[in-house]
Amino acid sequence: MGAAVTKSESLQKEWVPETKLEAKIIEAVQRRATRGTAMKSFNSIVLKFPKIDEGLRNCKAIFQEFDEDSNGSIDHTELKNCIRKLEISFEEDEINDLFKACDINEDMGITFTEFIVLLCLVYLLKDDSSTLQKKWTMGMPKLEPTFETLVDTFVFLDENKDGYVCREEMVRAIDESGERSSGRIAMKRFEEMDWDKNGMVNFKEFLFAFTQWVGIDENEEEEEEEEDNKEKA
């Protein structure tokens, strides 16, 4: 008799990327996984939260640079200009997919939090091309270590290196931390990541959840902008 197949294993075997962009992201994650991960435990990840939070906030200046009309979001044309300035070779349909993937609230604009996710996806996808290194670090030298930490964290959680994190992988990662009620914590963390509730977490879903874990909040950013405007008035 063959071994029983769990629900998560079944999902992993049947899962097919919906877009060319998603397929490229999975390939990039798996390629990055061959280099291993510096993360040893979930606790080691949590200890990095303050540093990651600080690093992600450095994206604000870049966001404002590419938000050409200063309306608080990056539209499709501004995104194309952003990709062009970074000299990254994306096809038209890949740019469309990237915009759609990061425009979570579907308001036809990329907000600051969504832009963080977009930049990290771009970082992952350019990772195998050393020719982009000079352009990428132009104005972004502080971001690369932060994004590398995020990729490293996902690689750690993706135990079987298939490009997704399943519920069992999340439970095992937190169980090993030795925390009391680790099972409940793991389930909560997984639910926060699994936005579409399909039992599998891709890199994009992980990134959106992580911005919340470390404290990046869209409303907080809006409040800061309002304070700045009051001071200028």
Automatic annotation (TrEMBL):
Molecular-function annotations in GO: calcium ion binding
EF-hand domain ranges (all copies): 54-89, 90-125, 145-180, 181-216
Listed InterPro entries: CML21-like, EF-hand-dom_pair, EF_Hand_1_Ca_BS, EF_hand_dom
Keyword entries, A-Z: Calcium
PANTHER family tied to this protein: TROPONIN
Name of the protein in its database record: EF-hand domain-containing protein
